[in-house]
Amino acid sequence: MQKWHKLKKPAASASLRDELMRLWQKWGQAQVWFAQRGLALEVTLAYGALVAIFLTALVQFYIPGKGFTYLISFSGQSEAARLSKLRKLDFHVERASAGYDAQYYAQIAMDPSLQNKELRKVVDSLPYRARRILFPAVAHGLGLGQPPAILQAYALQNAVAWLLLAVLLLHWFPPRSWDLFLRWTGVMFCFGLCVSLRNSLIDGPALLLIAFGLYLLEKGRRWSSTVVLALGGLGKETNLLAAPALLPGPGAGGRAWGRALLQGMLLAAPLALWLVYIARMVGSVADVGYRNFDLPFAAYLHKWRDVLAALPETTLLDLGAVWSLVMLVALTVQLVFLLARPRWAQAWWRVGATYAVLMIFLGDAVWEGYPGAASRVLLPMQLAFNILVPVGRSWTLVLLLGNLTLLAAPAALESPLGDGYEVRGAPALLYSHGGETMQLEFSDTWYATERYRREYWCWAADSGNLQLKNPHSQPLVVRLRFAIDTSGDREVVLKLNGVTAWSGFLTESTQVTVVLNNVVLPPGESRIDLISDTPGRRIDEDPRMLKFRLINLRVDLLKMAPAASAP
Predict the structure, then answer these.
(1) β-pair type (93-94, 74-75)
(2) Is the dihedral of CA 91, 98, 133, 263 positive or negative?
(3) Which domain holds residue 304?
(4) Report field, pTM of the whole predicted structure over 0.90
(5) Rounded distance, CA 171 to CA 157, Å?
(6) What number of H helices and E strands is found in the chain?
(7) For the chain, what is the domain count?
(8) Which residues contact 319 (CB under 8 A, 6 or more apart)?
(9) In a domain, 46, yes or no
(10) Among residues 35, 54, 378, 520, which one has the fewest Cβ atoms lying within 10 Å of its Cβ?
(11) Tens-digit pLDDT profile for residues 225-270
(12) pLDDT at 141
């Protein structure tokens, strides 16, 4: 037996060595295959890995029953500020939040003809928002006029545009070197593009149209490029700042300038005609956006002042000032590079320089906040910068500094905070026959969900309630788990459908874990009330009135109960 073992071990070792050698040979053959096509295998795999990371991040924003509507950021403060056809739909709403711009464009997508008179009441500035009609209209078309499909189409437009742009940019940044990889990544994961995706804004799709227009121009298809850039003006009016790309190069004759003039007129025509239509349907189109522009560098310097003042108070829970600093450094490097190295003969320089001038005149509304909207407004400058920076080690630092907002990409694409609760159970309990899931809705006294690492919670300003909706036709037996703490000493009582299910006295330093077993929820709605007679108060520098906090709320679905078990 001992001799047999001595014979087998070398054979096994040789087999493993042979397998590793075969794998190494295949890797070498793959490298040769890619090299013959002017590509680097390692760099190509890195491109693919980042696309996979993007798709993984995107999937996290899907909510069963609500799709990708988390990305639109609907306000939870006013149900009346929504179209009646939208109120009938199930979509994510951000409690205690004013929402963001996409909630207006998504509602315009319900009727891009602007004939729905409700739009004037639910859109903050309809003449201003309606200028950017292209992407709402595309969502309406993709949704075939059906509100649920329109909503999902609008929410996903940025993701589709991101993937198309990722492919298009291979024209300028093929996977041949790590230098080109940095440039591609610097655009695809810059803060502005990530924020556009995260909030379903129009900046990402608008950048795609500029990039495609310039691609056609480089291919010698000037008239096709003009059409694409003209469409871009209907997507976002500042896209017309890409018009200098169509200007002739140095030494061009009068015929070339005449053609450029005609192309410029065609470029502006669609937006001009649409503005006439808006004026007839809605009213004055003179609104250029409140505080969007200012004297040269005025708002830019305000931003530097505010960021430097806020940096000493930065914490791990709030890195907004750090991300603002990163954005300011990156945009400043791009601005200086483009204006210090004029290259009129290059169409991308003409586009980048135009947006650099725009940056100089941007107003406080674009810079304010943390980190601010400037990074997405100036996305074409970001792309032009990466295309134009010369290749070579001496330019590596400039390239890195100009793409510094990459550091903020994980924060911009961070998984959603959720609705402040988690539901677990077998699929048969999670979903009804109609595909509905159990839902919880917090009353208006609750603030928006907050999170730190794996912990999530909701603060209440006063006694509040939660509505639980059992989508099944039978009662459900569930277990409720959560922790609770308070802003001060107080008695807290929990009632389920009017019956006291738990109570306790909590001090300011106490956190209690509560487990309610075998709770029976009848079909339809049930109500949980959390009540305390002691008023809330402010904690440290938090301006909110706070009473108590519900932490890591979880509903475990245990089983179906006979109909007779319903209260």
Answers:
(1) parallel
(2) negative
(3) 51-412
(4) no
(5) 22
(6) 22, 13
(7) 3
(8) 411
(9) no
(10) 35
(11) 999 999 999 999 999 999 999 998 777 778 888 999 999 999 999 9
(12) 96
